[in-house]
Structure formats: C-alpha cells, structure tokens
Amino acid sequence: MASQQLSGINVFAFLAATILNDIGRGAAPLNSLLMAFGFAAANAIFSPLAYWALDATAAVLVWLFVPGTTETTSLEQMIYVYRVSLRRHLLYQLTEVLPWVRGRLMPGVSTKSPKSLYRWNTTKSWRTAQENVRGPFNVEDRAQHMEEL
Questions:
Q1: How many Å from the N-terminal Cα to the C-terminal Cα in the chain?
Q2: How many helices (H) does the chain have, and how many strands (E)?
Q3: How far apart are CA 149 and CA 144, in angstroms?
Q4: pLDDT one-digit tens code per residue, 28-55
C-alpha cells in the first residue's frame, strides 16, 4: 500500500475522469467516468493480491536465506550461527523444518520435532557456555565438528 502512495497512482485514480476526458477529446464524459470506474475497480481488486504476493515472497526468502538468531545470547554464539554455510542452512530448512511445518499443518499427520541445526550447551554457567561456543573454532576440532553438522 505504501508503494501506491509513493508512486502517485492514487493521484491518477483521483483525477482519472478528468485525465481520461482530456485524453479522449470529443469522448462523452460518461465514457471517461466508466473508464475511471474500471481503473478504480481493477486497482481495488488487484492491489491487495499484489501486496499479499509480495509479502509472501519476502517471507519465504527470509525464511530460506536468513539464519535465525533467537537462540543466541552472546556475540560468540552469533558468530557460531553465521559460520554455518548458507548451503547447510538451506538444506536444514528444506529437509528438516519444512516437513515438520507441513506435518503440523496437515491434520492426522504426526511428525517429530526437527533436530536443532546448532548445538548449544544447556548449562547455565557462563564459562561452560563460552567454552562450548569457542570449542568448535579450534583448528583441530573444526573439521570434526563441521562433519558432525
């Protein structure tokens, strides 16, 4: 809806009868009013559909390409999240989360919760949490950890 305001299409909708009357010199005023009504009807019908499609497309792209950071509580954990490759994140979303969402939306289909893409230490100790996040980034452990993901 904001794009309509910024593009000036609503100005045309407001002045459509006058503009169409000026363009079609000699046309009956009733014809320009009917064309303006047709334009307004098309605008009213298709604007919400286009707005919904744009929002839905944006939501799907964000879901696919932007890793979630709601579980992160520190900068080290944020680094850990963004070091996971985009390919790995896409595969996780498409093979783990999507079947789970589909199973939740379809009645009668039971699915298990998707396993987590990230391994967080569940203890409350700050030092243990720091060691858990820092651990996979040691040179020796990194290759093994990435294979486990």
A1: 42
A2: 8, 0
A3: 9
A4: 778 878 888 888 888 888 888 888 888 8
